[in-house]
Amino acid sequence: MLLCHSRSLSLKPYSFISMATHRHNHRRSPEDLSQNGERHHNDTHNHSATKKPKLSLITAEELRSEFAHHSPSVARINNGSFGSCPATIISAQQKWQLKFLQQPDDFYFNTLQPSILKTRTLIKSLVNADHVDEISIVDNATTAAAIVLQHITWSFFESRFSTGDSVVMLHYAYGAVKKSVAAYVTRAGGHVVEVKLPFPLTSNDEIISEFRKALEKGKENGRKVRLAVIDHITSMPCVVIPVKELVSICREEGVDRIFVDAAHAIGCVEVDMKEIGADFYTSNLHKWFFCPPSVAFLYCRKSDKVSDMHHLVVSHEYGKGLAIESAWIGTRDYSSQLVVPEVMNFMNRFEGGIDGIRKRNHDKVVEMSNMLMKAWGTNLGSPPEMCSSMAMVGLPACLGISSDSDALKLRTHLRDCFGVEVPIYFRAPNDGEVDLVTGYARISHQVYNTVDDYYNFRDAVNKLVNDGFTCSLL
User: Fold this and answer.
1) Model pTM greater than 0.85?
2) How many whole angstroms separate alpha carbon 264 and alpha carbon 282?
3) CA–CA distance from 314 to each of 147, 298, 376, 405 (Å)?
4) Minimal CA–CA distance to 122: which of 271, 350, 340?
5) Which of 47-56, 150-159, 247-256 shows the lowest per-residue confidence on average (mean pLDDT)?
6) Cβ neighbours of 268 (radius 10 Å)
7) Residue 117: what pLDDT?
8) Domains 22-73+350-473 and 96-343 share a fold
9) What is the pLDDT of residues 221-258, one digit of tens each?
10) What is the pLDDT of residues 129-150, one digit of tens each?
């Protein structure tokens, strides 16, 4: 067992990265921001469904306060796993919780449904859906996937689909979703075809080519492709998938249903239901959208094909449509589903609102990934245009990452001994490959991150390399 080094890489004081104070590539100091409400920007309410007084831009001090509950001893460059919730939104959630506890009956009969409808209306506007009835609020993207897969399973059981018909999904689909496909569709008689993608990736053409091959394989022996499961942003390894192009290909090839698993998408990439054109689309609101865990939306395009969609939990609202069923599945804490208006206000305090946050996160994660890649003499997992607010950075080959277990042990070692929180991905070498990068770090950038977070990661890895560390020592 390798003992931890004494922690020689102390975290530096919080230095504000200009998520609120930076226009394009020009950095302004916090003093440049008016605190008396006189300075506003034209896009403050770009995505708001209702007109409200304009908010002053957030200051550096206010931003630090919003995330002061984060552990100061950890360089948390892993927003992608669990997201982040500002203090303002935590406070708003607690008010909703107390409102319920003060008078649960009144809350149930008079407050809950119209409040969830307000959330659905805001999300409908944000994602450019046709109708609010197409938006349901559920616990998380995994729940949404199970709702969709249950619907597909019934189509097999009720003989609308034939035993052996295919489901096509990416090899890099989220693990829980792959298990859900096995639990629902495979048991119902569906045949699963995985799209094998290379990694690292260099262009969308590689993805499109492999996807077409998988569709052809899915149609072998007279099968029909009944469902395509397409990630918008894969989790590990992380890459932005050309969903519009893949959905269009599915339509051309006669795929029955298209489900986009976009757990990371909203707040991270552009999300437009009309442009994407899928039958189903889900995204978490607690990853990149600042909601408390856990909450997600599920979009179901209106059509006869999806008229019998139901929530997994059957309760009193059964038969009233998925959106209404989802809004009450029994006594529970619904507060995370109700704070979306407050979240919109929070994001509108950043220049450009949600669009500005998304762009600056992307630009900064690309900058930091390039810094790390150059420091270690490695490579990136994909070009910048295929990154979102996350990027894959190759780790030095001499660290000896030779298995998923090694990757997890190294992640733990970085957390425990250097105060760095970052996921590590193991890329198995192909036959004949030697001395290539087999470990990649998935770094995230969110508004609370500072340059020091990435410098601490860089310095921790450099120390391991200089000390002759390998994963075999763990």
Assistant:
1) yes
2) 9
3) 12, 17, 53, 39
4) 340
5) 47-56
6) 29
7) 98
8) no
9) 999 999 999 999 999 999 999 999 999 999 999 999 99
10) 999 999 999 999 999 999 999 9
Burial of 110 (0-12, 13-18, 19+ CB in 10 A): exposed
**Termini Cα distance of the chain:** 5
Instruction: Decide yes or no: CATH 3.40.50.2300 for domain 96-343.
Output: no
Structure tokens at 157: 């059981």
Tell me the Cα Rg of the chain.
Answer: 23
Q: In CATH, what number does 22-73+350-473 get?
A: 3.90.1150.10
CA separation for the pair 38, 34 (Å, rounded): 6
Sheet (strand 296-300) strand order: 135-138, 296-300, 280-284, 257-261, 225-231, 166-170, 191-195
| Domains of the chain, residue spans | 22-73+350-473, 96-343
Q: What is the 3-state secondary structure (H, E, C) of the chain?
A: CCCCCCCCCCCCCCCCCCCCCEECCEECCHHHCCCCCCCCCCCCCCCCCCCCCCCCCCCHHHHHHHCCCCCCCCEECCHHHHCCCCHHHHHHHHHHHHHHHHCHHHHHHHHHHHHHHHHHHHHHHHHCCCCHHHEEEECCHHHHHHHHHHHHHHHHHCCCCCCCCEEEEECCCCHHHHHHHHHHHHCCCCEEEEECCCCCCCCHHHHHHHHHHHHHHHCHHHCCEEEEEEECECCCCCCECCHHHHHHHHHHCCCCEEEEECCCCECCECCCHHHHCCCEEEEECCCCCCCCCCCEEEEECCCHHHCCCCCCCCCCCCCCCHHHHHCCCCCCCCHHHCCHHHHHHHHCCCCCHHHHHHHHHHHHHHHHHHHHHHHHCCCECCCHHHCCCEEEEECCHHHCCCCHHHHHHHHHHHHHHHCEECCEEECCCCCCCCCCCCEEEEEECCCCCCHHHHHHHHHHHHHHHHCCCCHHHC
Which residues, in sequence order, are CB contacts of 118 under 8 Å at separation 6+?
340, 341
| Kind of pairing between the strands at 420-421 and 135-138 | unpaired
Q: How far is residue 319's CA from residue 95's CA, in Å, rounded to a whole number?
A: 31
What's the CA gap between 302 and 148, in Å, rounded?
Answer: 14
Confidence label for 390 from pLDDT (cuts 50, 70 and 90):
very high
**Is the confidence at residue 442, as pLDDT, over 60?**
yes
